[in-house]
Amino acid sequence: MSSFFSRLPLLFAFPFFLFSIALIILSPLAANNALAETAIHNDNQVHVDVSGSLRVRYESLHNPIFPTTREQREQNNERISTRVIVNTTVSYNNISATLDVRDSRAFLDNNDPTLGANQVNTLEPVQFYVSYAPTSLATINAIKVGRMELDYGSRRLLAKTVYRNATNSYDGVVVDATFSQWNVSGIYIQPVVRFPSDAASVDANERAFDKSYSERRLFGAYITSPDDNVKLQSYWLKEDDGDELATNNRDLFTLSIDYTKAFSHGWKGNVEVVGQTGTARETRAADDTLDKDVRAYMLFGYLGKKITANTFLRAEVDYISGDNDTSDNRIENFDSLFGVRRFDFGPTDVYQAMPRRNLKTVGLRSISKPASAHHVLLGYKAMWYQKAPESVDDFIGHQVEARWRYNVLPNLRLAIGGAYLFKGRGFERGDYSDNSAFVFTGAMYSF
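The line above is the sequence of Alginate export family protein; the predicted structure tokens follow.
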């Protein structure tokens, strides 16, 4: 642990170094953007909006959280991640076009096999779409065509990323409408696959254009009630193997019902129930041709209370179906489709965090805003396998995490945080059976 704690001074110095770099590089760009916008907006017809951000983050992990061996990975891992976003939208009356270019890179990585296209996506147009808002159709709010991010409901099934270095995007059509004050988004999309995906190219931050495949498509609807307390998601994912695409041949129908209720005296509760059915294969191997029935589910709930003027404390629970037998004809592992998990299970990327499958948890989470510039998160979870592997104890461990965000300026935010996993018997396996310690720090400048 000495090497881990010896790096702690870097955690506190790093944000201030980033502060200086961000101001030097991006302040002129932000100023030029403001002048350009003023000039264009004066003609009352064409509007150009340019925005973006620069984020740099340092992460350090001692002892991988998942059981592994020395041959597979090293005990300690460090990484510096950078992400640059430049988003440009040109609008004319009720038509707009958006181009979002991002550059996500990773450095200082110690031959970590977990580094992949989820972290590195170099100089990529992750969004380019056209949006049309019909004026003659009372129920249709907007029609979007092209490549875009989507972020729906609880974000457990379909989401863009926030913590993770590279985002999710989709090619397709989205129609936003309103019926009897209920908001409805109908989608037909093809998830985009990030390239390159081989370890050597990713480690070298090489670039290649991302692409989607007609063999993998998702369609369905996201519906919200007038008071936004009820959220429904209904998706059908269909995929097949192609000349350039190996898949699990998933044919899955997923339905989510999410309900939030505010009570008196500052109490608030939420529950989301997700059911999943269909067929899939255990692997992507070409010789795996057995379609198995899928029966999976997920339950999340919390009950919380505002305990001070600026602190909300909640108790939460997850119950997510799992599978420990690949020899039968059924798959019970829950498939989170294209959702994200950082807000439920801790930091991703270097720390990785638990996947949203085969898991039971109970925990506490506190979110505080002691001042407008400060945001503090504290969390605790006890975790078990829903179905433990054969001859393995079902207790995974106790996880604690913390994160502090500080808005130094309206457009400059610093962050520092970490997580610690006290491993239970279920994770006291492999060559790194000791507890896992993780810290991160970073800064983001927005313009």
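Note on the example: Residues 8-41 form the longest helix (34 residues). The chain is about 10% helix and 50% strand.
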